[in-house]
Amino acid sequence: MQNAHAINADLHCHSTVSDGTLAPRAVARIARDAGVAFWALTDHDELGGQAEARAAAEEFGMRYVPGVEISVTWAGQTVHIVGLQIDPFCPELIDGLTETRSGRARRARDIADALARVGIDGAYEGALQYVGNPDLISRTHFARWLVDQGRCASIGDVFSEYLSEGRPGYVGHRWASLAEAVGWIRAAGGIAVMAHPGRYHYTDTQHDALFDEFTALGGGAVEVVTGSHTPDQYRRYAEVARHYGLLASRGSDFHGPGEGRVELGTLPPLPPTVTPVWHDW
Ligand code: AMP
Ligand code: MN
Ligand code: MN
Ligand code: MN
């Protein structure tokens, strides 16, 4: 194989099957146009886009990597675990994701009620207009509606003003456990990847405990270069990967053109000190 670090891999992206703005095939086209060679669609708690994503990737000449991003609650905060090279037909994974998704409709009603208490009416119906998959209503859909209503200038502003923990539209939710998420991914023959660890607000002790538990459960990789990390965090998580013996992943966390800090397929390569998660694919 060519030098693995030189391969343009983007292994973290979303479509309308979760909280992205484009259908899987349209995301695949953007990946191809950006020169991506290894591509994964990793919708939140959903596998419904995998067949379309694989077919489009093959049509566009990219290597397809089946993926998912699972919502987890660990020490009172939400952590995301990406699964790569999963079998999307694995019953244990399918059933686990169905269970993980099941609370979202109730939570969306509660978010709307919380927003109504600060004077924002009609948020449930508003957010629903942005939902591509009725099983997967996300805070992002509320955020897009609030921006289009002129309440905030950007999605990031909606989160910091209304939807992040401690803000008036935040509703706590209990997702899967870390052991469940890693277990389902492994049952499906995949590799579990700690997503965007730089985004979590843990103490140093909790951070180490999270990685200890993740590796003990059989977690295999960590996102080092992601749209959520600064260059300092690329270096920090390259060190974490080495310390815990984890492979390193790279992914934009693309949700739609112009929505995030980086576009699909445009991140810098992984640092030379780490082993890419795709090194033996
Ligand atoms: P949910 O799974 O419904 O809790 O929504 C989580 C999603 O909200 C994440 O996957 C991101 O797409 C988005 N999100 C979370 N925090 C932020 C933020 N600070 N700025 C922009 N998007 C965010
Ligand atoms: Mn998202
Ligand atoms: Mn995430
Ligand atoms: Mn994501």
Automatic annotation (TrEMBL):
Q: Which domain of life is it from?
A: Bacteria
Mind telling me which SMART domains this protein's record contains? POLIIIAc
Q: Record's InterPro entries?
A: 35NBP (IPR049742), PHP_dom (IPR004013), PHP_domain (IPR052018), Pol/His_phosphatase_N (IPR003141), Pol/histidinol_Pase-like (IPR016195)
Coiled coil segments of this chain: none
User: One Pfam annotation, family name?
Assistant: PHP
- Polymerase/histidinol phosphatase N-terminal domain residues are 9-74
Single GO MF annotation: 5'-3' RNA exonuclease activity
Recorded protein name is Polymerase/histidinol phosphatase N-terminal domain-containing protein
Its source organism is Cupriavidus taiwanensis
